[in-house]
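User: Show me an example of a complex going from sequences to C-alpha cells.

Assistant: Sure. Here are the input components:
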Amino acid sequence: MKKYSRQRETVLEVLQSVKTHPTASWIYDRARLEIPNISLGTVYRNLSELRKFGYIISFKTDDGNEHFDATTDKHYHFCCTECGKVIDLILEGTEELDSKAQKILDCEVNNHQLLFYGRCKLCMNSAKLKPNN
Amino acid sequence: MKKYSRQRETVLEVLQSVKTHPTASWIYDRARLEIPNISLGTVYRNLSELRKFGYIISFKTDDGNEHFDATTDKHYHFCCTECGKVIDLILEGTEELDSKAQKILDCEVNNHQLLFYGRCKLCMNSAKLKPNN
DNA sequence: TTTAATAATAGTAATCATTACTATTATTAT
DNA sequence: ATAATAATAGTAATGATTACTATTATTAAA
C-alpha cells in the first residue's frame, strides 16, 4: 500500500457500504459496477492488503466461505446454518476467555475466534409455515 | 455407511491413533502405509461419513486447513500461529455463551466454535534462543 | 455355498476458491 | 516532464475437495 489506486478505494467502499459480510466474489461483482474491467485478482490482493493494514477483518464460516467485514471493532458473528446469513454480535466480558485458556495451556494466547451457529429468526418463522413439520 | 469397508476402518484407526489433529492428506499418507492403493477420494468420503455419524469431528483453522479429531467430547482448540500445531483445551462454563448469544440475537443458537490463537510453549522458547530478538 | 443386489472403491476428471505471473498502466517524488 | 516503481488486467497455475464411472467387495437370501 505505497500508492493509491481507485481499485483499492472501490473495494473498501463497497465493503463499507453494506451491513452484510460478503465474500470476495460478491465484492468483485459489486466493484465491477463501478470499474467494469477490474480483475478478480485485484480484488483478492486488495482485500488482503486492507486486512493486513487493519482496515477490514475476515473470517471463515463452516460452509468454507471467507467473509469480509469493514467493522473492525471487537465483535463476534452468528451464522445461520439454513440460509447462511451472518449477523454481528457484541458480547461483553470475553477477554477472560484468552486468559483462562492461557492459564490452562501455559502458552501465549493472543486472541480467539468465536462463531455461533443456529437458525436465524427468518428461517425459524418460515419453518413454522411449512406443512408436515 | 450401510456396508463395512477396510478403508473406512483404517481411516478411523489412523485418526484414533494420534493425539494431533491431522488434515485429510496427512491421514491419506498414513492410511497408504496400511492400504497402499487407497484413494484420496475414499479418504475424503469416509471422513465425511464418519463425521456425519458422529464418530469424528472437524474444524478449520485460519490457515485454511481442515483438521480432523477422533475425540468427540466437547472441547476447544488452540492453534499456534507460528508452527500451526493444534492443542486440545477443555473450558468449563461455556454453555452460557450460546444462551447469552441467543438472548441478544433473538435467534435459535445451537452451538459455537471457539478457536484460540497464539504461540505454543515450544515456539515461545525457540524465540528466546534467537539472536537479535 | 452360490447368487443377486448394491454399497464402496480406485482412478481419474472436474470444480472452485485463491494465488502467481507478466506485460502494461498509473501513481508519485523529483 | 521524467524516472522509478507500485498496482493493474488478464491469464495461467495451484491446491483442496468433489464428482464420475467402471470395477470390486460386502451382505442378505436362496
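The lines above are the inputs; the final block is the predicted structure for all four components together. Residues 119 and 125 of chain B are 10 Å apart (CA to CA).
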